[in-house]
Design brief:
This protein has two domains: 124 residues, Four Helix Bundle (Hemerythrin (Met), subunit A); 93 residues, Helix Hairpins. It is elongated, with a radius of gyration of 23 Å. The longest helix has 36 residues. 70% of the residues lie in helices and 0% in strands. Helix 1 crosses helix 3 and helix 9 crosses helix 10. It is mainly alpha-helical.
Length: 233
Amino acid sequence: MRRELYNILEHEDETFLSKAYNVLMLLTILISLIPLMTKASLPVLTIMDHSTAIIFGIDYFLRLFTADLKLKRGKWSFLIYPFTILAIVDLVSILPNFLMFNSSFKLLKIIRMGRMLRVFRVIRHSRNIEIIRNVIREQKEALLVVAGLALSYTIITALLIYNVEPDSTFGTFFEAVYWVTMSLTTVGYSDIIATTVLGKLITMISSVLGIAIIALPAGIVTAGYMTEITKKD
């Protein structure tokens, strides 16, 4: 029985029940986000919010019930599972609903924000996201190199622009980092701009190199994604 339950939860077998459960959870995730799209306190939204939280709670305990089949560490699995990333996300996303019944809870407003983590529950129910997870796992070394390159570039360029431009342009180093990030991603809000000739030269170089640095991880993920698709086919 537990094995069959595990197969349904983890979508191990392409059975009707596993597919139906997967669809049910995806719909529940989408419905649970509706109350977060408005600040109105309507009864129907409250019912919707608590109902989806109950479903998530049942899903959490069912996964805990079959934790040994997933983690394969014997009885220790039941102690380890609550500390896995997805289990923590699950718990934090449903806990606020049960704490909401205690109106005297001082951190209620902050903890309610935990409900927004529900959107991350889609990670375990979407095949496409599962493929991307595999890509990141397989290409983590290349992605870490690119991340290190981007971080180094950000810090070095921020130091350059911070020391070249007057204080009236970049009052703090954080503003310089913010400017580099906007230039690196080619977003360019134009709320902070270089005013000196040397600063504008750095801006041009930063924008050109930013395109190349941003393109690297996109290329790595795309190539890895196509490889995973080929494997599955």
